[in-house]
Amino acid sequence: MPYELSLRRPVVRNFYATALFALAVPLASAAAAGDAPRASDGTRESTAPRPLDHSGKKRVGNASFYAKQFNGRKMADGNRMDPHDDNAASKTLPLGTKAKITNLETGQSAEVTIQDRGPYVPGRIVDLSPSTARKIGITEQNGVAPVEVAPITVPLPDGSVKQGAGADDAVADR
Predict the structure, then answer these.
(1) Each residue of 26-48: b (16+ CB within 10 Å) or e?
(2) What are the backbone angles phi and psi of residue 155, rounded to the nearest 5°?
């Protein structure tokens, strides 16, 4: 009987090693072929980083707010996420961009500083801190709202700062 058990252990180990290898090969070949993950609608999403938008033009899309799990975590600019600050995340606006976010359903707006990257959900262009989201009428119940993002100042790669489309609006609001 002890002899039988010792024979089974290597067989079980070999079985798991073979199964793991059988799963790893298709995944590795798909990654090498450049297969991108699929979005919920079945289309392929690009995993390549998007180029930064230094144009300063207004953009329209959906905004959401940071989940509570991100409170205190480091953002892309190195600062900790404070749910009470006016910070935001954008995949395409340069870090340090100041922008006016306007909820197109309520007309409420707030100024934010882009300090992080994201959101990583298709169709969303900006993630807002919870306090900023509340200022413009996004609650945990509705979660997402259509917004206009109007850059006020946009940092350029050479260290200078460009005035964005929202610069005139920001001066008029003050």
Answers:
(1) eeeeeeeeeeeeeeeeeeeeeee
(2) -70, 135
> 3-state class of 46 per DSSP?
coil
Within 8 A by CB and 6+ apart from 139, the residues are 133
Domain at 59-173, CATH class = mainly beta
φ and ψ of 129, to 5 deg = -65, 155
Delimit the domains of the chain by residue range.
1-37, 59-173
Q: How far is CA 15 from CA 5, 11, 147, 148, in A?
A: 15, 6, 54, 56
pLDDT digits (tens, 9 = 90+) for 103-147: 999 999 999 999 999 998 898 999 999 999 999 999 888 889 999
DSSP string, 74-135: B-TTSPBP-TTS-EEE-SSSPTT-EEEEEETTT--EEEEEEEE----STTEEEEE-HHHHHH
Locate tokens 């917004």: which residue? 147
The model's pLDDT over 141-174, given as tens digits with 9 standing for 90+, comes to: 888 999 999 999 999 999 999 999 988 876 566 5
Q: What is the pTM (predicted TM-score) of this model?
A: 0.69
